[in-house]
Amino acid sequence: MHDLIREAEALCQRAGMTLTAPRRRVLEILAASDTPMKAYDLISKAGEDGRATKPPTVYRALDFLCQLGLVHRIEQDATFVACNHAGHTQPVALFVCNSCLKATEVAYDDVAQMLESAALTRGFQLQRLVIEGRGQCQDCALAA
Amino acid sequence: MHDLIREAEALCQRAGMTLTAPRRRVLEILAASDTPMKAYDLISKAGEDGRATKPPTVYRALDFLCQLGLVHRIEQDATFVACNHAGHTQPVALFVCNSCLKATEVAYDDVAQMLESAALTRGFQLQRLVIEGRGQCQDCALAA
DNA sequence: TAATGAGTGTTATGAAATAACATAATAGGA
DNA sequence: TCCTATTATGTTATTTCATAACACTCATTA
Ligand SMILES: [Zn+2]
Ligand SMILES: [Zn+2]
Ligand SMILES: [Zn+2]
Ligand SMILES: [Zn+2]
After folding, report:
1. Would you place residue A3 in the very low, low, confident or very high pLDDT band (cuts 50, 70, 90)?
2. Could you name the CATH architecture of A2-82?
3. Which parts of the chain span the membrane according to its record (chains A, B) (predicted)?
4. Rounded to whole angstroms, how far apart are CA atoms A81 and B115?
5. Which residues in 29-48 of chain B line strand D, with CB less than 7 A from it?
6. CB B19: neighbour CB atoms within 10 A?
7. Is the CATH code 3.30.450.40 the one for domain A92-143?
8. Which of A5, B5, B77, B143 is the most exposed place for a label (fewest CB within 10 A)?
9. Domain with CATH 3.30.1490.190 in chain A
10. Residue B137 counted as an annotated binding residue
């Protein structure tokens, strides 16, 4: 977890960016959570001493972190999750468990290529790809 | 377009459901649009004589139509598009052009299977899959 | 005819995200 | 060092997206 912050710092430097205080706080909170979080949950905790802050502060931090690949936004339910691969630019699929709400990140280069070529046969040039799944994770399947 | 409504009616009957007036109006407006629409654009047009109606009316209709596969919701930007395959239950990928905003629907059984097995190797049982792309469509590429 | 269930109308509210403008901190260049 | 441009933050207000809750209608059926 502190590794994650250190890696994030290194990544920012390489990109000529800065991991400022609000950005760092948002990333820390997300990294400490075991499930994706809503923006307003972050807003209520990302201020000084864990107090609330204002929406734009958090949304700006989230935009920044998403752009660098340090955080992923789950479009289906507008939640955010820290990336555990420290800033990959390759696309990933995010599978969210309907029971425990934990998110699993899966790389899928081959799938991306298939979709890219499927799009291309229709003349569509893919620039961004979102793949999200819902279902049941292993732990919850065993517990059931 | 009138075909689409007829097919929708048939589909509803088969499912033991009814394509009531508000549902039909919403579907008609979506089918007539060449780009995905926001819910509040529908709200402002889905009433009697093209007048505005209330949010729950439209959201209920959208929920219904999405469940039957007659309409797809694009999660990235909370828009809705009429399906031109009249109620398939198979998953599809939706590619939205960043220039003209038109949506292209692509079936992807093979991709779904790859993702399903990728998920399964991690013990994750996939129940729902969202695949959305962004990029440039053929028309816009040629126009540029 | 009562009771059920599905669907709608309506009011109000909740939740997610951004616009717009002011202020502060930072980094270069003269 | 001082000025200036840039980057980021703080703050207020607003917009956009979605649902809760409750009353009402209408068809089905016991
Ligand atoms: Zn990641
Ligand atoms: Zn689970
Ligand atoms: Zn479809
Ligand atoms: Zn286009």
Report:
1. confident
2. Orthogonal Bundle (1.10)
3. none
4. 20
5. 38-40
6. 20
7. no
8. B143
9. 92-143
10. yes
